[in-house]
Amino acid sequence: MRSIGSSDGIRSTNQLVGTRATLMGSLHLTVGVASAMAAAPAVAQQAGTSGDIDLPTVQVQGGTGGFVADTVGVTRLPVPIFDMPQQVEVVTHEMIQQQQTTTMEQALRNISGITFSAGEAGQQGDSPIIRGFSGRGDIFRDGIRDTGWYTRDMFDIEAVDVFLGPSSFAFGRGSTGGVINLVSKLPKDANFATADVTGYTSQGLRTTLDANGQVNDKVSARINAMVQSVDTADRDNITASRWGIAPSVSVKLDDRTKMTASYYYQHEDGVPDYGINYLPAPTLSTSPGTFGQRVGGYYGNGAPTPPVPVPRNTWYGVLNGPLNDQVITDTSIATLQFEREINDFVTVTNGTRYVVSDRMARPAAPRSVGDAGNTVFPSPLPSVDVGYSVAQMTVGQQRYQIQTDNTQLNNLTDMVAKFKWGTFEHTLNAGIELDNETRSQQRVNFCNQASPLCRVSLINPSNSSPNNGVGGFPSYFPSSNSTDMADVALYAADQIKLNQYWQIMGGFRWDNATTDYNALTVTNNGPATSTASAQTLSSSDLMLNYKVGVVFSPVETVNLYVTYGTSSNPSSEFGVLDTGTVTLAPVSNTTAEAGFKAQLLDNHFVVSGSLFQTIQTNTRVPTDPSSSLPPMVLGGEQEVQGLSLSAAGALTAQWNLSASYTYMESEILSAGPAPTLASLVTVGKQLPNTPNNSLSVWTSYALTPQLTLGAGAVYNSSAYVNTTNTSYVPSYWTFDAMASYQFNDHFQVQLNVYNLTDEYYIAQYFGGSAVPAAGRYATLTARATF
């Protein structure tokens, strides 16, 4: 998986295990061997023996090797990870290959402290929660924000960088809990081709291609492609059908100038999974003496409620007909980048990207649990309904069809200078970013979840009638909105090595962000009437964020650091505005962190750890109507503090290990200057999607030069799903395993088994629904390399 190496302390993969053996790890997909890093040293040691496997030589870029990375895929962050005064984790290509990872979400499960929100009407696609704060707007691709609402496939991804804690000094708005950066597969000075075919026991096939060619010493090209149609194990009717293609070409225009052009296209047509509901939750008391305590609910004693106890395969969607559950996405990303070495010390990079991402989603989201007579349970739950038979319960279908169209035009110019001034060594970067994003959305409501026409049995939805997902609204008028966001940003940072013991860094980013928002909202009022309201809003935000840090190296292989950084969340962060928040200043976030990074075992193994505290101040909160304040003000406060530990690398020539552990304590500290009772009772509660303990481990061992075994575990303690802490998802352990065998230079097979114990756990969740993870399943991959 993960961080942390020094550019001159951690050896490159070639230095560690030899070029031929490295390629068994299929670094940059040159061979695609999942056993890679672990098997490689053994092969190198037996060179010249009868069991030798001769593999082609490929130039290694980026200084990555095995489970350790020493740099990140963001040009404006040129300092080695080992020297960064910040917790940075990297899911390397070897980890992705060994685990046969196909989506960004699967890759991020290697990093503790990250959970995932379930989908809802206004939130679709990848929705990570990083250290308790939403990260769905903090996903980047090669350092440029990736705004599309889609499931990010890994067929064109080399590695995944995660910057934990506010990082607005480098990335702009958001980044409260951290930033995710996907590193694309781009051309290399080599010739290779790898093709995979994977079969799934859950029914389905996936095939990928990665081919790279060097035309001459000036031109190289690469193409990645993917096709898959896969069912989700033990989740009825849930399918993921995708295909994609990603060609790229690099041209050396002269000795100091390189141009890289790339294109990425991904299409998906599948059935979305919006999961299951929760048992009727308790309420929070507003009475003196019990204020803020949970009372009532399904158990009658105020205990928080878990998801409804239904079989894992239970699905509340609509399978057939013209309005069946479906999600269709089309994402196109075109990028043109120029890199110019001005001299031996200064490099300037300019990149232009244009993105078009379209999404049509028509899911059935389970809402409003009720009784056998299709009457929704009221809140608070009457005592007569305490312990109501689950077998007699019904659930409503919330059915929206949402068409979302995104575009993005971005130009980023970055300068990196490495030089010595007097006795000080500088790594300086500065740049300007111009960004324009648009989004248009149209939403149609097909089903009134409280109507008997849109309710099904909680236990046997497929046997319910009518289960057609339409009803309760005689006419279906669409609501729509459009957004135009523009941002001009200037940034700079400098890390100065004072001597062999001390480094200091400081960086800032200034953003001038403007948003224009138009909305037409239609409300269906009855059998023949509806009302429409139009809204036009604009906002303009100036944001200045910074980061400072100090690194102390008592010995060459150990760094101790402290850092402090800020970030901002404007009202328009997710592309929408409303009258209550449009005039409010951005929410502010600060993180203080102290940590260490150490290289062990001749720099082959790296451990790191940090103590962190993130405080979100001036959160937007409603006010008591009796106060003289506006309906919404800035004044709330939330906190997450904890401990993060990680380790990665080669324990022996045959044994590789990656592990991370995160402990988090979260709390809502304030509900503002004049809070409503509903918000005041949440003070002291934990943040949703913030488990106290989370752990991720993956290890592999080369039994022979040909055979490698691997295994891993993920643990998350129970976590609340809402700010009232009235519902939760249980804790879980899940285990995976892998075995790969390299027959010869060109052919390998790999077996992966997921969820070995067939654990029933929740993979995504929020206050409205919880999505069960897949049951036990296996994949078998055949890989050919030339």
Q: How is this structure best summarized?
A:
Helices cover 5% and strands 51% of the residues. With 786 residues, it is mainly β. The longest helix is centred in the N-terminal third of the chain and has 10 residues, at 36-45.
State the helicity in percent bands.
under 10%
**Which descriptor suits the 3D outline?**
globular
Major sheet details: 22 strands, antiparallel, barrel
Write down the Rg.
Answer: 26 Å
Query: How many separate helices?
Result: 7
**Superfamily at the CATH H level?**
TonB-dependent receptor, beta-barrel domain
The percentage of residues in β strands lies in over 45%
CATH topology: Maltoporin, Chain A
Low-confidence residue ranges? 1-64
The assigned CATH architecture is Beta Barrel
The tally of strands reads: 38
The secondary structure category is mainly beta
Average pLDDT, rounded to a whole number, is 88
The separation of the N and C termini measures 26 Å
> Given this structure, which CATH class is correct?
Mainly Beta
Overall tally of structural domains: 1
